[in-house]
Amino acid sequence: xxxxxxxxxxxxxxxxxxxxxxxxxxxxxxxxxxxxxxxxxxxxxxxxxxxxxxxxxxxxxxxxxxxxxxxxxxxxxxxxxxxxxxxxxxxxxxxxxxxxxxxxxxxxxxxxxxxxxxxxxxxxxxxxxxxxxxxxxxxxxxxxxxxxxxxxxxxxxxxxxxxxxxxxxxxxxxxxxxxxxxxxxxxxxxxxxxxxxxxxxxxxxxxxxxxxxxxxxxxxxxxxxxxxxxxxxxxxxxxxxxxxxxxxxxxxxxxxxxxxxxxxxxxxxxxxxxxxxxxxxxxxxxxxxxxxxxxxxxxxxxxxxxxxxxxxxxxxxxxxxxxxxxxxxxxxxxxxxxxxxxxxxxxxxxxxxxxxxxxxxxxxxxxxxxxxxxxxxxxxxxxxxxxxxxxxxxxxxxxxxxxxxxxxxxxxxxxxxxxxxxxxxxxxxxxxxxxxxxxxxxxxxxxxxxxxxxxxxxxxxxxxxx
Length: 466
Description:
This protein has helices spanning 83-88, 109-124, 136-146, 161-171, 196-213, 234-238, 285-289, 337-349, 376-388, 414-423, 453-462, and strands at 14-18, 24-25, 41-45, 98-103, 127-131, 153-157, 175-179, 216-222, 241-246, 253-261, 269-275, 278-281, 300-307, 310-322, 330-333, 358-364, 396-398, 401-402, 408-409, 428-432, 446-450. It is of the alpha/beta class. Helix 8 packs across helix 9. The longest helix is centred in the middle third of the chain and has 18 residues, at 196-213. The radius of gyration is 27 Å and the shape is globular.
């Protein structure tokens, strides 16, 4: 327990605040009741309460805002110049926005933001790249490797936020990149960089710069072993946009996913390829993800998913093998474990597949993660294909949600899913029967409506339509 001033435990004007989430208590607590963090309370002095007219004195008068339809609202956003990234931010970057980018070490966070800063500097004016982790020579070497040469891109190596703010006020850039928020500090704060108190103060200072000066501010954030952003959860509430880098460092591509966006959809993703020239958007993600597929094997099926405004074809593979009857293994990668467990239970109870004594492995190939209920039918089809060891037609795709009674339910975006499958040569499609009247099939597609899991298994085993 930290040292507490004598008589301060329940004294007037004394509060204890959690340095992780900001929860306040009149006494010291070992564990925060809000965020469950241990030993996070520190003593603070409560501000003197005023009464009467004093508490209503305003620092500045309010100004009424007359809301009128904005003409040419697209001009309010700054386009990066890469359609995939502009779509990710909802149509471009909004001036005055605060953007947090998180990811594992080596994912490409610094490379991507250096590329964005250089692009903004060429198109709209000065950009400031601040690094507290790398030296100026290291940043210049990376910029030269990426072919980024711009007289409007300024680089600063600094670990105190006061100096960063002063430099931003001096050069007045259109965008500021801070790499990273866990390594910056306030000079008058005695805690070490990366502590919850320091991170909160640094983000608060940068937010004032973004909102007060209209600058676009990017923050790089480290993540913990559990995949969450390091530092207090409060910072995710303070920023306008939260992005996550996903993907295995052993593979040359990354998935950039939106977790929060006050100016656009939170369901958008972008597939980026990491090469010698940095991160470049993949022009045809569906073809890229299916390029190494082996359709002659059992247990593989393609399903169209929709991430925000992006329809995407992904391959779902399943493997059913004999295992320990008492404790068979069930491993899932890229899908929601609970939904896959539910689909397996429905296959056994409603479809009659004896899976309780079998080991089942289900994976979305390519490192893509999706939690769409529309993947249920593809998961069931892949598991059944592996169980019976029956390969599916190579031009077959399937989507639909499965209920606990075995029914196949309709999902949204049916037409977009169908068009994406047709554009990539998948001319056979299994979908919920309820969608047949809602989609325009055309003459090139052979579409079969599935009403239940039993009908799907009958079509698979009898080769009727599949």
